[in-house]
Amino acid sequence: MSWRLLSRPFGAIAMVALMISTASAQDRELNWAEKMFSETSIDFGVIARGADVPYYVTIENLYKENVRITSVGTSCQCANAKLPDT
């Protein structure tokens, strides 16, 4: 079996899983921390391997308490996230 034959069923399954997870995420209410982010999900589309694609997310403190961001991360190992230098 070649990779091309395996990629089509896998791609279809991945797309269905993505649509289900996106629909369920849109139906639920955001928690207090998620409300501070300009975006909670980003789709970069197709990007060349090794390409540098900077993207900035705005975080606004909506509360009276101080907010301390101690770490950032991604939901997959295909991207990197870092805090800006202060």
Secondary structure elements and pairings:
Blueprint: H1 3-27
Task: Describe the structure concisely for a colleague.
This protein has 86 residues and is an all-alpha fold. The chain contains one helix and no strands. The protein has one helix spanning 3-27.
* Cα distance spanning the termini: 52 Å
* Sheet having the most strands: none
Query: Globular, elongated, flat, extended or rod-shaped: what is the shape?
Result: globular
In percent, how much strand structure appears in the residues? under 5%
Query: Please, how many helices?
Result: 1
What percent of the residues sit in helical stretches (DSSP H or I)?
A: 25-40%
Class derived from helix and strand content: mainly alpha
Mean pLDDT: 75
Rounded Rg: 17 Å
* SSE pattern, N- to C-terminal: H
Low-confidence stretches: 1-8
| Quantity of strands, as a count | 0
Structure commentary:
With 86 residues, the chain is mostly helical. It has one helix at residues 3-27. It has one helix and no strands.
Structure characteristics:
disordered N terminus; 86 residues; mainly alpha; 1 helix
